[in-house]
Amino acid sequence: MNAKILKDAKIRISGLVINTEVIICSDPIGGTCSSPSPSILGVDFLINNKLKFVFDPDKKEAYLEKED
Hints:
Largest sheet: 2 strands, antiparallel
Radius of gyration: 14 Å
Number of domains: 1
């Protein structure tokens, strides 16, 4: 896989700081990565950081909740 791994990346979401590993594929469109890299809101990101993604299209509202 042609990817860079950012270990212990700090992501700030509405005041909440999450330390996580982020994988960045160098050419996601050209398909040079042998396996799909996770998106910032990928299922693996949500599970690893114990987050819940809530989306309500009627209220035009989306947010993350952190489980303690």
